[in-house]
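dumping this here before i forget
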Amino acid sequence: MAKLPSGQPTPANKLFYGDNLDVLRNKIASDTVDLCYIDPPFNSKRNYFQIYNNQGSEDRAQAQAFTDTWEWGEEAIAGLAWITDIARLQSGKLTEQTVELIRGLEKVLKRGALLAYIVHMTLRIVEIHRVLKPTGSFYLHCDPTASHYLKLVLDAVFCGQGGDYLSEISWKRSSAHNDAKQGRKQPGNIRDVILFYSKSRSWLWHWQFTPYSKDYLEKNYRHVEPETGRRFRLDNLTAAKPGGDVSYEFMGTFPYKGRFWAYSRENMTKFYEEGRLYFPKNGGTPAYKRYLDEMPGVPIQNDWSDILPSQGDEYLGYPTQKPEALLERIIRASSDEGDVVLDAYCGCGTTVAVAQRLNRKWIGIDITYQSISLILKRLQDKYSKSGDWPQVEANILLDGVPRDIASARALANRKDDKTRKEFEKWAVLTFSDNQARINEKKGADAGIDGIAYFLLDKDTNGKAIFQVKSGGANRATLATLNSDRQREGAEFGFLITMDEPTKPMRDEVTAAGRFKHPLLNREDDRLQIITVADILAGKRMDLPMARNDAVKSAKAEAVAQPKLL
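structure:
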């Protein structure tokens, strides 16, 4: 990815790895973003006073990064203090409505998971408002269990500073289903909420349209022009009140009794010459032919049930992935080509992918390296086929990713990284060039931090397992890795370590032997040691007949296993 070389222009697109609050506050200038869409983690399966106390399996991956954040703890306490600090109000950084709202919600909700979530969101909504241009728009994707609280926050931040609430959009995220399996008697929950706000009373908007229904077409566009096959409907050419010279004979016809022509003689003649007039076979007043292929469709309303969830080749397996059609509608409606689109919780990168395709500049932020990796791979997969990836890649500033040993150590020693294993993810995904899969098992990973696949033949996969150590690696570490490799039926075991290998460690590599590929004249050490310094210097995984299609998603899919060794 592009860096910031001296004297060189900053790349148009930016992908930030880190806490979005820190990035918003310190790395994005005020009044620079045209459109912001966010889809922060939420959970509609539990009572909203128990958000993320019990995650469902399908949204666990995204929720995991926020489990600690949304418990009432030091971060929530600090956030609440920041919001209610009278000096912040006096400085103009917060509206009085925002401060009083959070104080009131503290009394209502008490200090728990939900208030921690509201505090978390308020801090970021304040910064998103700041970075938006005066003509900017903000879409917040949430679910009905917390949307009413978030709307209050948005009203306080946006409407309290001259902005406007524009719409509550309903998106049908799934087909009808029975929620009885959750042990609850209730209607099926199938919709999400998208809250739409503008920073000022002057915002950018381009109407978007949906196709006409089949019933509407059959009823209103039932005529077909024999010469061209074009479908059309008939519009009245008369008016109730005269407006100029509209009492005239045209092609031997007059308007109905008590009516007048709606157009001048000149325009009527023009319509006739263009073939736009329809004359009834039994005579009478002509009508105007309005062709279906000239009509844009039905203007979008606030019920977006026409957009289906991600499926087919677009689906990456990401637990809360949104369809590209959803983001395309938002981006087309609220931005122009060349505008800046921000997603502060970019997940698997749908906003980024669509903004890139629609020729917008974009800013993506995510706190997990697995998301950063998935976004880069998503873009690489799409633009490599056309040969455009080198240019696309050169135009991305990748910020927050380790560039030297010091920053790699800082990532490994992050105090807030109790469960995310971000250093391991960065090491495995960077070395594998985003081709490995991360082992998501917490505390029971059996010594395996990641898995990559290669082909033994056209029908059989070989496997390489990864273990990452930020310090303390020794010969016993490699012996254990080799045992894990054999247990997992893997041909290779990669140890990624912050430390330089010792002679006993190199001896252990030699003792593990070599693997000869059955179809290639190639042998490789079954155990391999890769240092963080190697990765920073550009060393990448080199498997024989490596699969570059094995990672399509953040969620692993079943892959045929090789025979045990």
